Amino acid sequence: MIIELDPLMTWVIVIGALVVLVAAFLIGRRYGVRRTLNTMRRYAHPANLSDEVIDDAARYRAALIVNPTKTDVRNLAATAEAICRFEGWNPPLVLETTPEDSGEGVTVRALDEGVDVVIAAGGDGTIRAVASALAGTSTPMGIVPLGTGNLLARNIDLVLDKTEWALRIALWGRNREIDVGMAKTAPDGDTHIFTVMTGLGFDAAVMADTSDDLKARLGWLAYVEAGSRKLTGKPSHVKVTFDDEYRISARVRSVLGGNCGKLQGGIQLLPQAVIDDGMLDVLIVSPKNLGQWVGVLASIAGRRASRGLHTNIRKCRKVVIEAGDDVDIQLDGDPLGQSSYLEMEVDPSALTVRVPTVEQRKQIRAEAWPV
Ligand SMILES: [Mg+2]
């Protein structure tokens, strides 16, 4: 039997089909195809309606690596769990850092579990440790900034004081590939990853001399306090080799290699440093007395891009610093002991980080400035 459709019926069917297609497309775009299909599957099989039995394997899962000295772990884990549940993710795998494992080991464990994103909750030290394990993989890193400097978070324009937003950005933010720095303190030594800056001399001596207690009480002013005590130290004689060829020899207070250059309070220590240009910006600071330090500060405040008063900045891919004696070294603010050798190199686009999408930025702004 042939079903005869009158022309009106045919149009109704064609338009109906189009409406369904457009609706499916819009829903897919708005909520994500994977999540929408999962939700539909739940409603198609009422037995699955209780949260536990749904296809857990199909849902995303995050790992949350927390430095327990910076926050209340149970509180943060509860917030993360609530947000994950709300966003249709599996409960997060919560792991704590310890004095022995500042984050690298637990991140490797999280990668073995096959998580979709690793969220580092801590200061730049924790972030550096997590990044060490994630660099070179395609698993993105989310950041909940809980430190004194939060320099990486500042340099990629994350929200600093809204934990819930930081978590949402970690789950649904945009993936951005950034460079990481690689440092060695001996020609055949271990490679240490850094995301912000590594330095030798004055800055490292300050980091080594700033007490955690004072950092907790004064924040970044603790560095100023330690810095003022170190201003009149003795300079070191160093040979600096850029990209295996250009060499300079100087008496300096500090040599700093930066993957990016923004510090607290909007200070641009390295005004031309870009976090994904495949280059390191190397700053040499060489004041001989307190008066010349004033010149250094003026050059930094004036955002001198290359040559300032007793400062010099140069872009390169690799730099080797050989000092006449052992000098303090710091990586992203963590003291790394003393050495007379420091080699820094950039590994381009080695790390994926989650940054806010345009839509998320709009929402954050709307919350901050209610109409
Ligand atoms: Mg760079």
UniProtKB/TrEMBL annotation:
Keywords linked to the UniProt accession: ATP-binding, Kinase, Lipid biosynthesis, Lipid metabolism, Membrane, Nucleotide-binding, Phospholipid biosynthesis, Phospholipid metabolism, Transferase, Transmembrane, Transmembrane helix
Cofactor: Mg(2+)
Residue span, DAGKc domain: 57-187
Catalytic activity, EC: 2.7.1.107
InterPro entries from the UniProt entry: ATP-NAD_kinase_N, Diacylglycerol_kinase_cat_dom, Lipid_Phosphate_FormReg, NAD/diacylglycerol_kinase_sf, YegS/DAGK_C
SUPFAM superfamilies: NAD kinase/diacylglycerol kinase-like
Parts of the chain that traverse the membrane: 12-32
Entry GO MF terms: ATP-dependent diacylglycerol kinase activity
Family: Belongs to the diacylglycerol/lipid kinase family.
Name of the protein: Diacylglycerol kinase (ATP)
Annotated organism of origin: Brevibacterium epidermidis
Source taxonomy: Bacteria, Bacillati, Actinomycetota, Actinomycetes, Micrococcales
